[in-house]
Specification:
two-stranded antiparallel sheet, 38% helix, eight-stranded antiparallel sheet, rod-shaped, 234 residues, 29% strand, Glucose Permease (Domain IIA), 2 domains, alpha+beta
Length: 234
């Protein structure tokens, strides 16, 4: 049976003192081999650490590049959204202004409609003499020349066309908001129940036999003095 011999190493160290004495130290191969093994392990560890750090740094750089690209994309998207938001804000501002103007126009139109509905106009198309009725409910009595027309004093709907004991025919116009105007004349009514009329619409045509007009205004079912509302020019 053969045994392979193992080579052993010995490290001999010598040092000379000042007095000339030689000091010898001998180190066996065991510690040397141990030191060599430790050195090898250390070199391998350092190499592995270097490789690991290199890989880690490379991955970190890759992540930084990816994050930078993502941040650039987000920045571009944010800028685009900012522009879009600014555009939408301008559109909202324009729309708001348009709605505001429309609301103002509607309010003005509504006010104009209400104003036109009030029975404030003059009930005849021309001049006439006028006096107040002495008895009964508030009423103005007009005497007009032939060819003059009896007109509506505000926009409204014909509510009543019927006979009148004193004047022959009565027309009641409902103007809304509680107002009604009453026209009493012996002529032939030119409107019928349910008609919607504008301001200044002809109700009677004055002839030789129907020159007198009795005019009244009611508010919430009560007669009021027409002079407090009627607009008389000239």
């Amino acid at each position: 049976m053969n045994f392979r011999s193992r080579t052993k190493y010995t490290l001999r160290l010598m040092a000379e003192k000042k007095d000339g004495t030689i000091i010898r130290r001998t180190i066996s191969s065991g510690p040397i081999e141990t030191a060599a093994a430790l050195t090898f392990v250390l070199v391998v560890a350092i190499t592995c650490k270097f490789i690991y750090d290199e890989i880690t740094i490379r991955d970190a750089r890759k992540k930084i590049i990816e994050q930078t690209a993502a941040m650039n994309d987000l920045t571009d998207e944010n800028e685009a959204l900012t522009v879009e938001n600014s555009t939408l804000t301008n559109k909202v501002s324009v729309l708001s202004e348009a709605v505001s103007k429309k609301a103002e126009a509607e309010d003005a139109l509504s006010q104009e409609t209400i104003e036109n509905a009030l029975p404030k106009g003059f009930p005849l198309s021309g001049s006439a003499t006028m006096k107040e009725a002495e008895d009964g409910e508030h009423m103005l009595i007009f005497t007009a020349a032939q060819g003059i027309n009896v007109l509506t004093t505000g926009t409204g709907t014909v509510e009543i066309v019927d006979a009148d004991e004193l004047y022959g025919t009565r027309i009641v116009i409902d103007h809304g908001n509680g107002y009604q105007s009453v026209y009493r004349n012996s002529g032939t009514a030119l409107v019928k129940n349910g008609e919607t009329l504008g301001k200044g619409y002809i109700l009677f045509s004055v002839g030789k036999e129907n020159q007198e007009l009795g005019y009244q205004i009611m508010f919430n079912g009560e007669y009021v003095d027409p002079l407090t509302m009627i607009e008389i020019n000239g």
